[in-house]
Design goal:
alpha/beta, five-stranded mixed beta sheet, three-stranded antiparallel beta sheet, 6 helices, 14 strands, 30% strand, NADH dehydrogenase [ubiquinone] 1 alpha subcomplex assembly factor 3, MTH938-like_sf, NDUFAF3/AAMDC
């Protein structure tokens, strides 16, 4: 039923909800078929958690993984440990071998632009990437805890070698390295800087 009310010469319809419409909607909802839930199966899924949905659980992991990380230490799965006092970064090639990358060379820093957040690496410190074969397709670079980027010269250097760079904080770079290294074995490398060596 529609009732109109007149107020100051204007006609405004007022719509009342008829009871049978409410009743029919309830009946329609009630009539819907509800799938029965297997309680035992649901309980088992909850106990297993997300492990059942790990599509990469059967894939081989990189030989060199990060077993532990803090602001002043990186512990590798192969037993090596890199600490702040060593004044080096952790360089992992293709998930197979780990090296120490010197932060200083003959008294000169291999990191330019720490104060601006746009980092450039001197070409002399990157020669190892020209020598290694096969070259990694992706290099995950972790630049401490702060938001930093690599400068255009360094980016062009890696691009000319056919390498893609993923630049982030060190913690995120570790995650990227292990995820991409599992998806694309042998093609992903990492250059990881301890936060404390960059903040001093």
């Amino acid at each position: 039923m529609i009732r109109t009310s007149i107020r100051r010469g204007a006609m405004r319809p007022s719509i009342y909800l008829r009871p049978r419409y409410v009743h029919s909607s309830l009946v329609a909802f009630k009539d819907r078929s509800i799938e029965q839930v297997d309680i035992d199966k649901l309980t088992k899924q909850r106990e297993n958690g997300l492990s059942d949905f790990d599509v990469m659980s059967d894939l081989p992991r990189p030989k060199v993984q990060i077993a532990g990380f803090s602001n002043d230490t990186i512990q590798l799965s192969t037993g090596e440990k890199i600490t702040k006092d060593m004044n080096i970064a952790c360089l992992i090639f293709g998930g197979e071998q780990a090296f120490g990358w010197k932060l200083n060379n003959n008294g000169e820093s291999n990191l330019k632009g720490l104060e601006t957040g746009i980092i450039e690496f001197p070409p002399s410190s990157l020669k190892i990437f020209e020598m290694v074969e096969p070259k990694p397709e992706i290099l995950c670079i972790g630049l401490g805890n702060r938001s930093r980027f690599i400068g255009p010269k360094t980016r062009d250097f890696f691009s000319n070698l056919g390498m893609q760079t993923e630049v982030s904080s060190t913690l995120v770079a570790i995650d990227n390295y292990e995820l991409l290294g599992t998806e694309r074995p042998g093609t992903v490398s990492a250059l990881l800087f301890l936060p404390d060596t960059l903040e001093k």
